[in-house]
């Protein structure tokens, strides 16, 4: 996070200098609280379990095209969290030394790691997971605004955003299965700050539509606020990986496969800030 902060500070300084020489270009900062939830690809295997409130910060760069149309971009640090509920007896992972172990499946058995019981290994049946992800977010939108009306201008936005994953953790509610001697013990526990970086896609993208207003303070300096709906069309999570396994029973036989864990994000984002 320190490297990201200094990177953003460097960009802010550069853009400020540039905006001072090119008066038509506007530069600003904003806060971006948001409500986030997810839409699973496989609704029979997992379900949305509620929306989450998050916060972010960002830099704004606006290039006028005409008197009423401009191209707006910038650089945001965006935190996104959401909760997924996993149906009974379908999703599990192998856990050892406070980390999820990647598994490989051969036929209908786990080929690696072996053995997956004993020697500190546990099998965790996943019941609910709260995802917590931080992204570097680049908005790319067209902004269309009205003429000044008593110090206010109103605008609409349309475009998209590109997201690059920086970090990803999860809080899991699981049924822990452990081997003690020849006895398997089961207990319901919560695990916090599980590293799930390798289960998340590096990039995602969304469509973005919104509306808002500016209030002029002095000269080119204005306060602004907007509300945007962002609908992701790329999976935030990997559709399948060896970090989450599906177990299903058919004709009294157990079959294993990689769990279909693809989900897409949806967001309502409030942006409040100042443009110079």
Task: Note the overall shape.
Answer: elongated
User: Strand order of the main beta sheet, please?
Assistant: 1-5-6-11-12-14-15-18
As a percent range, the share of strand residues is over 45%
Give the topology string: H per helix, E per strand.
HEEEEEEEEEEEEEEEEEE
Number of helical elements: 1
Q: Tell me the major beta sheet.
A: 8 strands, antiparallel, barrel
The radius of gyration computed from the alpha-carbon positions, rounded to a whole number of angstroms, is 23 Å
The CATH topology is given as: Porin
Q: Output mean pLDDT.
A: 90
Which percent range fits the helix content? under 10%
How many domains comprise the coordinates? 1
Structural class: mainly beta
How many beta-strand elements?
18
Q: Which second-level CATH architecture applies?
A: Beta Barrel
Low-confidence stretches: 1-12, 14-22
Give the CATH level 1 class. Answer: Mainly Beta
Question: Could you explain the architecture of this structure?
Answer:
This protein is mostly beta strands and 276 residues long. The chain has one domain (2-275): Porin (Beta Barrel). Helix content is 7%, strand content 66%. It contains 1 helix and 18 strands. It has one helix spanning 2-21, and strands at residues 26-31, 34-40, 46-48, 52-54, 56-64, 69-86, 91-96, 99-101, 104-106, 109-112, 122-145, 152-180, 183-195, 203-218, 221-232, 245-250, 253-258, 263-275. The strands form 2 sheets. The chain has an 8-stranded antiparallel barrel with strand order 1-5-6-11-12-14-15-18. It has a two-stranded antiparallel ribbon with strand order 9-10. The chain is elongated.
